[in-house]
Amino acid sequence: MRYLVLWTRRAAKQAGKLPRAEQRRVVEAVGALEDWPGCLQVQDIRRLTRHERLYRLRVGRYRVLFDVDPALEVVSVEQVRKRDERTY
């Protein structure tokens, strides 16, 4: 079963500000989340501590924070941020 991937307005705006090459990499990596949970072995995905459904996806220097709702089979992309000491 394929999951539906939804972008929040905030995440779409953040992704739109990335350089074109990075933007393509992020969109491609997020698109692979449709195969949840099969994509866990392929991509660098970790569950965030103290969060039940929040995960991070590493795409180069950028981090994609997303929420997974297995009951609705939806992956919701919450943020796209450059990795720094304030990312998490």
What's this model, at a glance?
This protein is an alpha+beta fold and 88 residues long.
Structure keywords:
single chain; 88 residues; alpha+beta; YaeB-like fold; five-stranded mixed sheet; 5 strands; 34% strand
How are the secondary structure elements laid out?
Blueprint: E1 4-7, H1 9-16, H2 20-31, E2 45-47, E3 54-59, E4 62-69, E5 74-82
Parallel strand pairs: 1-5
Antiparallel strand pairs: 2-3, 3-4, 4-5
Could you describe the 3D structure shown?
The chain has a single domain, classed as YaeB-like fold, CATH 3.30.2310. It is built from 2 helices and 5 strands, in the order βααββββ. It is an alpha+beta fold. A hairpin with a 4-residue loop joins β4 and β5. It is globular. A 5-stranded mixed β-sheet has the order 1-5-4-3-2.
Percent helix among the residues?
10-25%
Structural class: alpha+beta
Return the average pLDDT rounded to an integer.
89
CATH architecture: 2-Layer Sandwich
**Assembly status:** single chain
Mass-distribution shape: globular
Order of helices and strands: EHHEEEE
Strand order of the largest sheet: 1-5-4-3-2
Quickly count the helices: 2
